[in-house]
Amino acid sequence: IGLSDSLELRIFLFAFFFVFYVGIVFGNLLIVVTVTSDSRLHSPMYFLLANLSFIDLSLSSVTAPKMIADFFSKHKVISVKGCFAQIFLLHFFGGSEMVTLIAMAFDRYVAICKPLRYTTIMCGNVCVGIVAAAWGIGFLHSVSQLAFAVNLPFCGPNKVDSFYCDLPRVIKLACADTYRLDIMVVANSGILTVCSFVLLIISYTIILMTIQRRPSDRSSKALSTLTAHITVVLLFFGPCIFIYAWPFPIKSLDKFLAVFYSVVTPLLNPIIYTLRNTEMKIAMRRLRQWNLKLWVKS
Ligand SMILES: *[C@@H]1O[C@H](CO)[C@@H](O)[C@H](O)[C@H]1NC(C)=O
């Protein structure tokens, strides 16, 4: 059904989402290219950041392009396969994003609370392992949920009241008693979201308490990095918890909240990390000069 019926609102939303999505593509690609091309940024924190950017870009690409293309089409249609593909990819990237956010919090925890052991704890293998675990957990989470939903009988109702397919809404269309499936979604997605969120809040609380006991000049830089991380975490998890784990969903609010993790947080990461992080800014300047040199030579 999409987000709105009114033409004025649709034009506004189209412009809004179009600009956001272009920003997401450019911003996140810029982070990935900057981190991979600059050897001075080859540290766990920046590797995780580049991975987060890649996931953000993918997560947003699952829903945003179709939503943008659908604003002015009369019949907003998606095939059953397309619908399940959206569900699968959404949970795959969403699960990976949660694990990556936890990994980034862990990385900051080690860097701030155990600085002397940072290089031994966060060595190359551990970092690769964390990234592999993120993709693996995302995959398992997505498959384990979808396995229950693919065999549902669909016999009539086929309108999804949102701008993308997601389990809670698609399950409602099945001609079967879906009570158990609803519980399963809350148990799987809901618990994953709430546990990740609690884990993140605990780690950031420990980090903040450690920082408070420090002399102020070094801690202010750490504090600004942390506030950025915490903002992303709150904006990503708030809507997710509301959609999957809140027992009394207010359905019309759900789809507007979903806008947060499909276009708002994926844009926020590049903004937060590129505008506020000096090392990133310096690396981007180097990248630009290097490109300019290549261009002048050719
Ligand atoms: C993700 O992290 C791994 C492991 O540290 C790294 O090798 C890889 O380059 C990162 N991916 C991106 C897109 O930066």
From TrEMBL:
SMART domains: 7TM_GPCR_Srsx
Membrane-spanning segments: 12-33, 45-64, 84-106, 118-140, 190-211, 223-246, 258-276
Pfam families (alphabetical): 7tm_4
Coiled coil found in the keyword field: no
Domain G-protein coupled receptors family 1 profile, residue spans: 27-273
Main location group: membrane
Compartments, as annotated in UniProt: Cell membrane; Membrane
PROSITE patterns on file: G_PROTEIN_RECEP_F1_1, G_PROTEIN_RECEP_F1_2
GO molecular function, one term: olfactory receptor activity
GO cellular component: plasma membrane
Membrane topology: Multi-pass membrane protein
Family: Belongs to the G-protein coupled receptor 1 family.
Record protein name field: Olfactory receptor
